[in-house]
Amino acid sequence: MNYFELFRFTPAFTIDTALLAERYRELQRAVHPDKFANDTEQQKLLSVQRTAQINDGFQTLKDPIRRAEHMLALRGIDLSHETTTVKDTQFLMQQMEWREALEDISHSQAPEPMIDELYQSFAAYQTELTQLLAALLDSELHTDWLLAADQVRKLKFMAKLHNELTRAEDALFD
After folding, report:
1. How far apart are CA 50 and CA 138, in angstroms?
2. pTM score, two decimals?
């Protein structure tokens, strides 16, 4: 299913999330199961299925990584179950540095500055990746879909790394 069509958006990485939320509420009102309480079982089932599609579409389009994955899937590039790794040597080296820094946190006498520095480093890199991804996916010209897919893979890795940092921080201070 093309969620951009469902929500009446032109496929683009950059979307108006307020308008997305507004259209989500409109669609939910139109197919809410309560409206079909006196209808046939088939109509009720269709309403529930349509509601699930709308919910999934909303969750997909409001999340930048999932939105990018959806755009790529519409182009025949499915990243959801793949095991392809990023081959960018510079990124791989940076990953190793971040992982070492994460390990060092638990052994540090003063972990707070290290944690803050990592959060800032992650945020800066994610911003850079997101800007590049937006430029690729929103381009009027021919897009390098495989390069865009690599940016999504990197963003997914960054999201995991961010979660690991949050867990490490929680473990230290809880």
Report:
1. 28
2. 0.86
